[in-house]
Amino acid sequence: MSTAVPEITFDAFDDDHRADPYPAYRRVRDAAALFPYELDGVPVTLVTRYEECAAVLTGSDWGHGYAAGISPFRDTTAAIPGSFVRMDPPEHGRYRKLVAKAFTPRMVADLAPVAGRVVDELVDTALARGGFDVLEDLAVPLAVAMIPVRLLGADPADGARFREWQLAIARGSDPDSLLDEAAVSARTEAALACMGYFGELVARRKREPGTDLLSQLTVGADGESLTEAEVIGMSLLLLVAGMETSINLIGNGLLALLRHPDQLETLRARPELVEPALDEMLRYDAPTQFTIRVALNDTVIGDHEFKRGDGVVVLTASASRDDRVFPNADHFDITRYAGPRPARKHLGFSLGIHYCVGAPLARIEAAAAVRALLDRAPALRLDTDTIEYRPSLIHRGVLSLPVKV
Ligand code: HEM
Question: Looking at the domain assignment, is residue 45 inside a domain?
């Protein structure tokens, strides 16, 4: 049995939705939980509501299917050794286990003061100028300091190159059919340059190991040996999965706060709400808007039958605005995740076996940035009426966020 085609037309990836895709998500979500769609020239199903998205993300009948050769999606990263985000078990678990070690509570506790110091320095400089761009002056240098430099052990002097490479790769992570030729070749060049850089770094760390994750993976501290190509692929994944997203959490999250002065005031009065506020930011305007999955077996969601090899687009940013699960879902409420009965888990970090492994680091970075601005910029306000967004669709983030202090 298949779902009746709803009588609305909807293009999830229309440029017109860029400034605010949520009304369009609501229209399609209210029309159907499963919506027929086409991506990269392939018929797929758009999954729009929370319960159905969660069922796909956590269901063992769903995965990526590249190794089995059944994916209808083109994905250039699926072929990179060690880049486990598009892998299925058991390969996925083998790699993920090694990286998860970097995000133990202990390692994370060690990283928090580092993020605090980086933010303090950046905020000192920004405040001295009277106004600044939250993206370029705070979120970007913070992400560079934490991910390529601290986590992977790259030279801080190479920060600008990482930002450039990461942007080209992030733009290129949209489905190929939505990219022009220049974006595709920029992605390829950036990935090659970045892998070349990590290749040299791996060779150096073999001779002189440091304390970073790249050194641990390279020297196989836990008796688990990875090839150089795998370490390089994993490093690329961490850079790409971690930078654009954590930058956009700070950008989208602060924008939401600045557009809801009552919420900003509540947060100033009750700084213990910073952690729950981060969850609300991830629910309300997620840096990652959707992901893809493939039926690994014949299976059903609701009354819809999927055949092995069928592809779906899991519209997580729509699911996180689903009123069926989040009352008054379009309302930005920083207390939603506070107290003894917090809201259901948003899908900002996904769910299931691919749940964001870097979530603790993302929280540390964003909490440090938000806390510093609350403490040190009591008159913080937006310095523009027009907010422009980057062209990416998987990634949602503003081009710049000018503020006055
Ligand atoms: C606010 C910031 C972040 C957001 C919104 C975010 C979002 C996500 C999402 C939605 C997924 C799952 C994709 C899927 O299910 O297909 C994911 C996976 C992943 N993230 Fe994050 N992420 C963030 C920060 C980070 C950071 C800082 C790192 C590391 C430095 C990181 C590393 C990863 C990795 C390696 C995966 C793949 C996990 C797996 O496949 O098992 N992320 N992230």
Answer: yes
User: Is 142 among the domain residues?
Assistant: yes
Query: How far is the C-alpha of 246 from the C-alpha of 298, rounded, in Å?
Result: 36
3-class SS at 70?
coil
What residue owns the CA closest to ligand 1's atom 37?
85
Quote the ligand 1 centre to 350 CA distance (angstroms). Answer: 8
Residue 221: what pLDDT? 57
* Per-residue confidence (pLDDT) for residue 306, from 0 to 100: 98
Q: Is the CB of 111 under 6 A from ligand 1?
A: no
Whichever domain contains 79, its CATH number is 1.10.630.10
Verify whether residue 356 is a known catalytic residue.
Answer: yes
- Can you tell me the mean pLDDT for 140-158? 96
Locate tokens 């240098």: which residue? Answer: 141
Cis, peptide link before residue 271, omega less than 30° from 0? no
Q: Is 194 a catalytic residue?
A: no
pLDDT at 218: 87
Ligand 1 pocket member 245 (CB < 6 A): yes
Residue 190 pLDDT? 95
Average pLDDT, the chain: 92
Residue whose Cα lies nearest atom 32 of ligand 1: it is 358
As a whole number of angstroms, the distance between CA 37 and CA 10 comes to 9
Fill in the DSSP letter of residue 331: S
| Model confidence, pTM | 0.95
Residue 54 a catalytic site member: no
Spatial separation of the C-alpha atoms in residues 248 and 264, rounded to whole Å? 18
Domain residues for the domain of 271 are 15-404
How far, in Å, CA of 58 to CA of 60, rounded? 7
Token pair for residue 84? 């486990």
Ligand 1 center from residue 170 Cα (angstroms): 13
* Ligand 1 pocket: which of 213, 345, 349, 392 to mutate (most atoms within 8 A of CB): 349
Respond yes or no: is residue 365 known to be catalytic.
yes
Domain total of the chain: 1
Q: Is residue 162 one of the residues assigned to a domain? A: yes
1 falls within a domain: no
Omega of the bond leading into 90 within 30 degrees of 0 (cis): yes
Give the DSSP H or E segment for 93.
helix 91-100
